[in-house]
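Need a sequence for this fold. Nothing fancy.
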């Protein structure tokens, strides 16, 4: 849904949840996340190991989860603003998460692109008890572009973002994170194996 081709081949950056088949993104139930820091979501991390009873539990619905990004909204903006995405079970029952979240950066002109999926890492079923949190790690992330020190940036290609969209795996409940750093653009970060930032399955460690 968000796959408007942006920035041509000069800027293979970031995001959109529509391209992530397993994330099944939709704007029909989009909510706006409060501007909070990681401390507002402090909770015990859920085990990343598959549970023997996970198959008997229901999948976590969008309404069961609070989605947060550690460091989002911190002032000044951190150098890496999306290192992981946290999903906290706010329901009264355990549920399971498995797969890749949808992640999309939307520009002020309505363009978007999506994080790649790190397919070298296999998704696992993660049991998330009430109050517990499981994370989806990212690699590459979004870096703040520093025009005063351009030589320290990986590229001079920049994006003027408006918001970040995150959709938990196997849901259509997209959470919108308004861009909290006015005037701060993001730089195009990419690695040798990916043309854009990428995300790991929930509960799976990164490199």
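Here you go.
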């Amino acid at each position: 849904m968000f796959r408007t081709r942006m920035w041509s081949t000069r800027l293979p950056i970031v995001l959109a949840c529509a391209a992530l088949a397993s994330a099944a993104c939709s704007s029909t139930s989009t909510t706006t996340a409060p501007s909070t820091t990681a401390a507002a979501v402090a909770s015990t991390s859920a085990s990343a190991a598959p549970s023997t009873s996970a198959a008997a539990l229901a999948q976590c619905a969008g309404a069961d989860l609070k989605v947060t990004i550690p460091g989002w909204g911190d002032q000044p903006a951190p150098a890496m603003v999306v290192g992981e995405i946290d999903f906290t079970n706010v329901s009264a029952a355990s549920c399971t998460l498995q797969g890749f979240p949808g992640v999309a950066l939307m520009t002020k002109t309505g363009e978007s692109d999506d994080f790649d999926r790190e397919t070298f890492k296999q998704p696992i079923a993660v049991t998330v008890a009430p109050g517990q949190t499981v994370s989806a790690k990212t690699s590459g992330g979004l870096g703040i572009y520093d025009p005063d020190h351009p030589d320290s940036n990986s590229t001079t290609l920049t994006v003027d973002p408006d918001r970040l969209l995150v959709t938990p795996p196997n849901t259509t409940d997209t959470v919108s994170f308004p861009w909290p750093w006015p005037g701060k653009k993001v730089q195009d970060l990419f690695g040798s194996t990916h043309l854009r930032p990428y995300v790991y399955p929930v509960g799976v460690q990164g490199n």
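For context: The CA atoms of residues 50 and 125 lie 5 Å apart.
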